[in-house]
Amino acid sequence: MAVSVYKVKRTILILFGVFLAATAAGIITLYQLGTDFLTLEDTVKENPQADAVIVLSGSAERLERGAELYAGGAADTVILTNAAEKGTTPDRAVSLGISKDDILEDTKAQSTYDNALYAKDIMEEQNFSSAIVVTSEFHSRRTKMTFDDIFGSDYTLSYAFTSSSYNPADGLTETEKKTTFSEYTKMIFYSIRLLFD
Questions:
Q1: Global pTM value
Q2: Which of 26, 55, 140, 183 could bridge across to 66 with cysteines, CB 3.0–4.6 Å?
C-alpha cells in the first residue's frame, strides 16, 4: 500500500512544527532563568598548575587573563584558539609578556565547538593532560559544557572567566539582550549536537 505524498508532507510538517515548538520552549525557559544561569564561578584554585592555558578567541580580556595566568606560573604553554582573531593574536600575546616560543596556535576554529576540538588536537600532539580554559563569564556555561564533553575524563580542565562589557546587574542593554538570547540559543543547539557526538 503506497503512502500518499500528502501524508508524508503532513508528517514532515508536524515533526518540524514540534521541533520548532520545543526549541522555542527551551529558549523561553532558559531566557526566563535569567542571565545568572549563563555564568559559572571560576574553578581555578590558588596557585594553579596545568600543562597549558587555553585562551578562547572573542575578546581581548580573555587573552589578558591568560597572560596573567601564564605570568603567575600556572602553565608554560598558551594555546590560542582562532589565533587570527583581533584581540587574541600571537603578536598581542607577546605584547602581554607571553614568550613566542610558548604559544601554540589554532587558526581554523569558527565556533566554541571548534575551539574545543582543535585545542584537544593540540593537547594530544603535545601529550598534555591538563589545561586552564579562559573565556568570558557570559560564555562560561556553554564553554564548560562543550569542553568537558569533547575532552572527556582523560583530561583535567579548570576554568577561568573574565568580566566583559556584559554586565546584566545594571539592567540589560539591547546588546546584552542579544548576547543573552544568542548564548541560550547556542546552548540548546550545542546540547543537541553533543548528544550525537
A1: 0.79
A2: 55
